[in-house]
Amino acid sequence: MVFLKAGLYFLPYAAGVGSFFLWRKSREGENAPPVELRTSLKDKKFLYQDLAGKYDASISADERLMLLGLMRYWLVSKAEGHVLEVAGGTGRNFKYYKPECNVTFTDSSVAMVQTAQAKANKLRPKEKAEIFKFEVQDAENLKYPDNSFDTVVGTFGLCSVDHPEKQLKEMQRVCKADGTILLLEHGASSFEVLRNLQAVYAQKHYDKWGCI
Question: Which of 76, 85, 107, 173 lies 20 to 30 A from 165 at CA?
Fold first, then answer.
């Protein structure tokens, strides 16, 4: 009972201290400098090469906490027909595609595509792995004709390219006129405190993951 009472007194205190800390850090974000983007393709190549083998293990807990797996399922399960996935990373969407799809999976990083292909080969039933084709492609300059795909999928990739508007235009260009573009992205929070916190940690996040 003593520990229970102590805990009841401590929780409001901890919540108050935590809220004050977040508020103070958020004030720093009001004057945070802009993120210094690495525009060198060489820099990004080595960053993604380093991340490829450890990305899934590093990000899985965060995705579970934020229920991103559920969001991926809700989005990707809507894909139909001949599908193009751009900036696909390590293939975290694989298990959500319907077996009737025919998926061309792309990423600009050779290491990421190799990691994704190895993951797909472990999918069961084995027929699920056979719906995927893998290519190294720059999402800002896709090598496909206009109106090529029934569905174009992009999840958390726009934040990793230098010119997201170019990727969006390319996705629109290769998607059939009656096709579907499926996007799942993150951005600045609509809540000022959280938005300022994002600004505080934006540079560290970019340096670690290559995205904003």
Answer: 76
